[in-house]
Specification:
The complex is a heterodimer of chains A (160) and B (339). With 160 residues, chain A is an alpha+beta fold. The radius of gyration of chain A is 16 Å and the shape is globular. Chain A contains 6 helices and 3 strands; from the N terminus they run ααββαβααα. Chain A has one domain: Fe-S cluster assembly (FSCA) (GMP Synthetase, Chain A, domain 3, 2-Layer Sandwich). Chain A has a 3-stranded mixed beta sheet. With 339 residues, chain B is mainly β. Chain B has one domain: YVTN repeat-like/Quinoprotein amine dehydrogenase (Methylamine Dehydrogenase, Chain H, 7 Propeller), CATH 2.130.10.10. Chain B contains no helices and 28 strands. The mean pLDDT of chain B is 95. The chains are: A alpha+beta (160), B mainly beta (339). The interface between A and B is medium-sized, with 11 and 23 residues. Chain B: Keywords: Chromosome partition, Repeat, WD repeat. Chain B: It holds the Pfam family WD40. Chain B: This is Probable cytosolic iron-sulfur protein assembly protein CIAO1. Chain B: InterPro entries: CIAO1/Cia1, WD40/YVTN_repeat-like_dom_sf, WD40_repeat_CS, WD40_repeat_dom_sf, WD40_rpt.
């Protein structure tokens, strides 16, 4: 159900972009945003779940439609990811958020700002989790914790 | 507005990591920077350029989040994610770690010296604010542990002339503390921000406090003493603090730092949209409801988030900034001419 509504809102936003075709350069934008979103998705889909031996894509924690890219400025983008954790367990959701952030920080080649959220309605403490995973100081400190770091590194390791 | 903030120079202060914070020494001749590489660097001028005079590398096991100079300029305190605060003593170009303050349960987020030089405050993700006393023999003693905040405490700052302490937190509030009998108490909680409050700055007189937040606003708070003319209610003998101005719509992402120039009154902000902004109070505005105008907006001041802005305490208009890209930049601010 979640996936369908995500697809719907993505299609809607695409229609809105296309409706601005009369503006010069606007025709360029939707395709670039789609391309950028796919670039992001390609990097996050292979991230392994911290608990299960599957990727986030296999578990449908992330889907193509869960990535949104907006142009902030020339060659500067805002990437928004809404992921769906498999279980309503606070620490796992935070861990997934951490993995997403670290992978993109390291591998995304274009200039971007990143916002990561739990998709609405999937968690009782989603506001708390969203606040934590978007606090860069908390993220930096977490990555200096050797145990946490090890888990994240294992999850973001590129498949052979 | 583009010309009101001119770049004087840049240095790659913390290679391959982020630069988190900057502090000018009281004489305005040295700038301390600290970062994710666990080091502190001391910068000074040599002719027209800024050069690294010292590197303090043996103090911390993790990120150094903030640094603060003592009012006499002979000591530097550093707050780290390794849960400790180091006190460094300056001996010409050398710095020696003379004490390590322990006690916080996890990352220390901020450290600040009181103007008297006898008190130090630290705060942490463990939700507490600690007040430490220093004696003539450089012995430090924790005199109070304040557990008023309900979340991670991001920043502490002392009032410029009174022994009054302010703290900013992930719980979206600002709290104020003073000494009562032999202990420290929280006498006011400033509510209004809708997300984490990252930093604070008092104005030169100490009558007003600026706070900046993840909610993309800067709020200005004013102190009202008991029996004030404006009829603002106070509880007992404690002053009341009210929000008298909110600067919103100027910043497009989290505001990580705010700095109030003690010489000119100009307000600078460090933002997650990579820009530096300067605001000045309109001269004709009502002190109870002041208005501030944006006098400088430097788009792309850095290639990544700006984490800190710091006004030089002696040279008006000299501003330093640092970023997630590891760089420190120096700027000359000149209030734009015009109507």
């Amino acid at each position: 159900m979640e996936r369908v509504s995500g697809l719907l809102s993505w299609t809607l936003s695409r229609v809105l972009w296309l409706s601005g075709l009369s503006e010069p350069g606007a025709a360029r934008q939707p395709r670039i945003m789609e391309e950028k979103a796919l670039e992001v998705y390609d990097l996050i889909r292979t991230i392994r779940d911290p608990e299960k031996p599957n990727t986030l894509e296999e578990l449908e924690v992330v889907t193509e439609s869960c990535v949104e890219v907006q142009e902030r400025d020339e060659e500067d983008y805002l990437v928004i990811i809404r992921f769906t954790p498999t279980v309503p367990h606070c620490s796992l959701a935070t861990l997934i958020g951490l993995c997403l952030r670290v992978k993109l920080q390291r591998c995304l080649p274009f200039k971007h700002k990143l916002e990561i959220y739990i998709s609405e309605g999937t968690h009782s403490t989603e506001e708390d989790i969203n606040k934590q995973i978007n606090d860069k100081e908390r993220v930096a400190a977490a990555m200096e914790n050797p145990n946490l770091r090890e888990i994240v590194e294992q999850c973001v390791l590129e498949p052979d | 507005m583009k010309d009101s903030l001119v770049l004087l120079g840049r240095v790659q202060a913390h290679p391959d990591s982020r630069c988190w914070f900057l502090a000018w020494n009281p004489a305005g001749t040295l700038l301390a920077s600290c970062g994710g590489d666990r080091r502190i660097r001391i910068w000074g001028t040599e002719g027209d350029s800024w050069v690294c005079k010292s590197v303090l590398s043996e103090g911390h096991q993790r990120t150094v989040r903030k640094v603060a100079w003592s009012p006499c300029g002979n000591y530097l305190a550093s707050a780290s994610f390794d849960a400790t605060t180091c006190i460094w003593k300056k001996n010409q170009d050398d710095f020696e770690c003379v004490t390590t303050l322990e006690g916080h349960e996890n990352e220390v987020k901020s450290v600040a010296w009181a103007p008297s030089g006898n008190l130090l405050a630290t705060c942490s993700r463990d939700k507490s604010v600690w007040v430490w006393e220093v004696d003539e023999e450089d012995e430090y003693e924790c005199v109070s542990v304040l557990n008023s905040h309900t979340q991670d405490v991001k920043h502490v700052v002392w009032h410029p002339s009174q022994e009054l302490l302010a703290s900013a937190s992930y719980d979206d509030t600002v709290k104020l503390y003073r000494e009562e009998e032999d202990d420290w108490v929280c006498f006011a909680t400033l509510e209004g921000h809708e997300s984490t409050v990252w930093s604070l700055a008092f104005d030169p007189t100490g009558q007003r406090l600026a706070s900046c937040s993840d909610d993309r606003t800067v709020r200005i708070w004013r102190q009202y003493l008991p029996g004030n003319e404006q009829g603002v209610a106070c509880s007992g003998s404690d002053p009341s603090w009210k929000c008298i101005c909110t600067l919103s719509g100027f910043h497009s992402r989290t505001i990580y730092d705010v700095a109030w120039c003690q010489l000119t009154g100009a307000l600078a902000t460090a933002c997650g949209d990579d820009a530096i902004r300067v605001f000045e109070e309109d001269p004709s505005s009502d002190p109870q409801q002041p208005t501030f105008s944006l006098t400088a907006h430097l788009h792309q001041a850095h290639s990544q988030d700006v984490n800190c802005v710091a006004w030089n305490p002696k040279e008006p208009g000299l501003l330093a900034s640092c970023s997630d890209d590891g760089e420190v930049a120096f700027w000359k601010y000149q209030r734009p001419e015009g109507p």
